[in-house]
Amino acid sequence: MKALLVIDVQNGIVKMGDFAQELSIIDKLIEEFKQAKLPVIFMKHVVDEPENSLFQASKGAELHESVRAYADVVIEKQTPSSFYQTNLPVVLEEANVDHVFITGFNAEFCPQFTAIAAFDRGYQVTYIEDAVGTVNTDDTYEMPGLDVKEFVSTALHWSSVIEVLDYEEYQEVYEELV
């Protein structure tokens, strides 16, 4: 069975950029999975560190309004991996999930770590590259010309173990969900 993971679509991140395209695609994917009666699991990053105001128990930590109404299953995590010290493995096992689709924020952290961790645990993984965003830029990493999203997608694709598709490709490959 397939499941959609919606990772860290929280106010603290979404307010930091123009993510209209990513949010629109995430919304379409959620609708398609729900219509197909497949699990949609929301990951929510929470931390105890006061210096990280993005995810403190505040409005910044709340799921963004664009996805909040869909959130039947919300799993809190404290690290970039959605699997580490969470009940995600149990939720996936109980639903007989063997294939996860990755969406969300910040590309080079939580979606990437979750994709790799899912593969390591034996799941088939599809990373929807235009349904993943990041607030970070080449300036953040002091690497002029770096396209963070493209770099992560390329690295995952070149691994030859994680399927990386844009939404249009996803529609063609998984037309039964569309």
Which key features would you list for this structure?
single chain; 178 residues; 6-stranded parallel beta sheet; 34% helix; 21% strand; Isochorismatase-like_hydrls; Isochorismatase-like_sf; hydrolase; Isochorismatase family protein
Write up this protein.
It holds the Pfam family Isochorismatase. The protein is of the alpha/beta class and 178 residues long. The protein contains seven helices and six strands, in the order βααβαβαβαβαβα. A six-stranded parallel sheet has the order 3-2-1-4-5-6, sandwiched between helices. The protein is globular, with a radius of gyration of 15 Å. The mean pLDDT is 92.
Write the layout of secondary structure elements.
Elements: E1 2-7, H1 11-14, H2 20-35, E2 40-45, H3 65-68, E3 73-77, H4 88-94, E4 99-105, H5 110-120, E5 124-133, H6 148-158, E6 163-165, H7 167-173
Parallel strand pairs: 1-2, 1-4, 2-3, 4-5, 5-6
Keywords: Hydrolase
Pfam family, one: Isochorismatase
Protein name: Isochorismatase family protein
